[in-house]
Amino acid sequence: MKITQKPSLKHLQNENLFLRNTNKNLQKELLKFKNQNALIQQKYEDIKQQLEWFQRQLFGKKSERILSPSNEEQLYFEGMKPQEEQLEETQTIKEHKRKKQKRNGKYKISLPDDLPIKTYLLDLPEEEKICPITKKPLIKIGEEISDKLAYIHGSYYIKRFIRPKYSNKEQIFTSEMPDSILPKCKADESFLSDILVKKFADHLPLYRISEIFQREHIFIHRKLLSQWVVKIGTNLYPLYKEMLKQTLSSGCIFMDEIPVKMLQPIKCKHSYIWSVSNHKYKIYRFKEDRKHQNVQDILGNYQGILHSDKYAAYENLSLEKGIIWCPCWAHIRRKFFEINTDPPIKKWILQKIRYLFMLERIALSRDENQRLKIRQEIEASIIDEIIEKVKEKLSEPNLLPKASLTKALRYLYNLSPHLKNYINYSDARLDNNTAERAVRPFAIGRKNWLFLGSQNGGKAASVIMSLVQTCRSLGINPREYLEDIMRKIMSHNSQKLYELLPDRWKQKYFG
Fold first, then answer.
1. Considering only CA atoms, which of 323, 341, 309 is closest in space to residue 414?
2. Distance separating alpha carbons of residues 187 and 487, to the nearest angstrom
3. 157/148 Cα distance (integer angstroms)
4. How many domains does the chain have?
5. Do 271 and 341 belong to one domain?
6. How far apart are CA 136 and CA 138, in angstroms?
7. Does the reported pTM lie above 0.90?
8. Cβ-based neighbour number of residue 345 at 10 Å
């Protein structure tokens, strides 16, 4: 008979301790796997949301959107796929250099012979037809004829200036040509304004404008068109500078920036167009990069209300004395709208923001006092409710740090000290859509002309685009405005350039 010995108390204690340690280790391993699973789940959700976003961009409601096929077979109907083409034999060609065409730095204009001609006689006054020395009448010895290509109501013609020449056998006297923004240019201001409107209002690249002229048998090299545009932008810069001064002195501006490509020898460089707008003017500034210093360079010593998105360059200005920063609620709404899941907090916040925009539409239709009353008595309490709700939600431990919902909540909460700034100023707005609309012409234009040719081209484009888009926002025909001011600006009093600004011009001619 086998006798089994009972385990001792010490043995049982050691075994119990071993089991407890094993259990602790297993719990640690389980917690580790749970954390890893949560991270994997979070990455999966992020990738899933990115995929859904790209699918919306490709297959969502987009006008004139060309869908990218997932594979080559989607390009063909059934039974219509072409046979694979055989590769042709390649042949090595000896390296050679292309000769550069000699242009002598000039691009001539070729015009059809049947263009109509309007003649303008620019004669000397009768009192100037007397020789200042001999007091005898001057003798007419010929005429000075100058032709300029002009534009009127969809047709082109030649504007011919005839200036009789007189002489006293020692000197030649003739009348002066009218002031022109491009002296000795073969194009009249009416024709130049047509080019500027085609490029900066209709977004046509210069090569396409050149092709339009060719259909009318007018041959102008696009390089010459580019030179004209840059020179016009340079000569209009003083007027542009005055408009920027008036904008910054208004005390309420909207600011945004948009990337555009600038041509480089090897690869196009990303430069930026900065927009500074108010309720009257639209100003654009060309910069080669997106450095924070650019904002300070543009604004200078500006004091007043600044609307913008949450770019750090603008957010830093909120610390400056005299700057009232109003972040954009439309950007906040977009953050929540782009969340692919549908948590209750998302629907609730979007509903509250919708109420804010509805109330703001009512407030903007009232006078200043009633507007401020609606904002301070109704909108302010809604904003406080939103901030408190977001604060409570962020304190919950189950929020994933990198989830799109968490990012949207933090985006809103970080702006909470500034979200109610607009309610105390009647000129302030709930969003930055004024600046968003202002940069849209460059967003459309860069799809057509693709890039800016140089730094000078970028600066000229900023000047002319500012005038053209300001005219459009004020309901002015930019072609008529540009033609008129280009005839006047070279001789206009530099201390009274404000008289040529679009709103003053409109008031003068249209009341």
1. 309
2. 12
3. 9
4. 3
5. no
6. 6
7. no
8. 18
Among 154, 178, 202, the domain boundary falls at 178
**Does residue 123 sit in helix, strand or coil?**
coil
Amino acid, single-letter form, for residue 348: W
Contacts of 281 (CB under 8 A, 6+ apart): 243, 246, 247, 466, 470, 501, 502, 503
- Is residue 142 in some structural domain? yes
On whether residue 223 sits in a domain, the answer given is: yes
Bridging pattern class, strands 282-287 and 139-152: unpaired
- Verify that 171 and 211 share a domain, yes or no: no
Q: How many CB atoms lie within 10 A of CB 467?
A: 28
d(CA 261, CA 270): 5
* Contact yes or no for 481/500 (Cβ under 8 A): no
Domain residue limits at 163: 117-178
Residue 294: how many CB atoms within 10 A of its CB? 17
Q: Tokens 């100023």, residue?
A: 425
Q: Which amino acid is at 248?
A: L
Q: Work out the mean pLDDT of the chain and round it to a whole number.
A: 86
Pairing of strands 282-287, 269-277: antiparallel
Residue 280 falls inside a structural domain: yes
Among 277, 319, 209, 325, CA closest to 442: 277
Q: How confident is the model at residue 28 (pLDDT cuts 50, 70, 90)?
A: confident
Is residue 316 located within the same domain as residue 249?
Answer: yes
Structure token pair of residue 188? 């009249």
